[in-house]
Every structure is written in C-alpha cells, then in structure tokens.
Amino acid sequence: MANVTVTHKGPIKGNVILILQDATTGRVEKVVEHHNIVTTSGNQYYAERGAVQTPAMTFNLGKLTIASSYRSTETNTRTYGDFVLTTFNGTQAFDAGYPKTSDTDTDNTGAGATIVTYRRTYSTTQGNITIKALGINRLGATTTAAVSLRKLLNYVTLSVAQQVTKTSSQTLKVFINHTFLGSP
C-alpha cells in the first residue's frame, strides 16, 4: 500500500485508510486511501490537548461513525447530523488502545511519531452497508442530541469509486490518521 500525500491548509493533515478483507482467507479485497478534513471543533480539541487543558469536546472517548449516506460534502463545519444513518447505526467504539501515536499496525501506512491514529475493526456481523461517509464523533452523539454533542473531530465523504460495500463475509479495518507538522 502506498502512502498518500495530503494537501491541506493548516497544521493538521490527515488521511483515512479503509481495508476490506475476506473473513475466511484474509485476502485484501479493497484498500481506499483518502484525505479527511479536521473540523473547527477538531482543531479546538487538538489545541486544548496541546495546551494541557481539559478539552471541551472529548473526541478521544468518542466513536467512529460509518454512514450509508450523507447530507453534505466535506467542510470544517460538518456535524453528526450530516450523516444519514438508516438500518445500521454505524457508530462504534475505537479498538482497544486507540487513539495513539506511533501505531505499530503494519496495515496503517499513515502511522508515525507525530501522527494520532484512531482505529476501528468491524467483524463480519458489523457495518454491513455501503460506506459513503465517515468521521469521529463525541461519545453520546445522536442526530437529535444537543449541538455540542453533534460536533465531529473530522468528516470524510467518499467518491463513488472509493465507496466500500461491506458484507457479512468480510471484515473491515478503518484508520483515521491526523498528522501534526506545524505551519507550512
């Protein structure tokens, strides 16, 4: 898998990697690498963490959401309400030990010492939808929650070619990486 160079104005750059595998053989069936937009709320969260303050939004305790549709394309103001969740509530907790830096999972081609990685692995019984959008939300987020709970750390919309259709015969591993490189 090749690394992706992401063009993004500002100090936080990111990529998303989705790895779809056959559950029986482990054969990789599809890999999608795409940039992701850190929202205004996400920028505030990282600034507060960097200043050793208690963040107003606890995205590190949040969840990863995959959605079968969305109301808007990527911007830094998207919220949880922009996801369209139908029969599957795509909000799932991060894998144990995540988020973290210096991710040692060899499937994560975007890992590094200045990169925060969030990971979620979906079993054969989870996430069996066509994934068109994803992002990290706060714990307790719903489309009808208070505005502060609907905030997202990041927001990603996938092109038709990048969309992943997951079935019960497959597993899916999703990485969201945010790189801190300072101002350009």
Description:
- The protein contains 1 helix and 14 strands, in the order E-E-E-H-E-E-E-E-E-E-E-E-E-E-E.
- With 184 residues, it is mainly β.
- The chain has one domain.
- The strands form 4 sheets. A 5-stranded antiparallel beta sheet has the order 2-1-14-9-8, with no helix packed on it. It has a 5-stranded antiparallel beta sheet with strand order 3-12-11-4-7. A two-stranded antiparallel sheet has the order 5-6.
- It starts with 11 loop residues before the first strand and ends with a strand.
> Strand percentage, roughly?
35-45%
Outline type: globular
What is the end-to-end distance?
A: 26 Å
Mean pLDDT: 84
Number of helices, where a helix is a run of at least 4 consecutive DSSP H or I residues? 1
Spatial strand arrangement across the major sheet: 2-1-14-9-8
Structural class, judged by helices and strands?
Answer: mainly beta
Number of domains: 1
Listing every helix as H and every strand as E from the N terminus to the C terminus, the arrangement reads EEEHEEEEEEEEEEE
Largest sheet: 5 strands, antiparallel
| Strand runs, count | 14
pLDDT < 50 runs, ≥5 residues: 1-11
**Helix percentage:** under 10%
Q: Gyration radius, to the nearest Å?
A: 15 Å
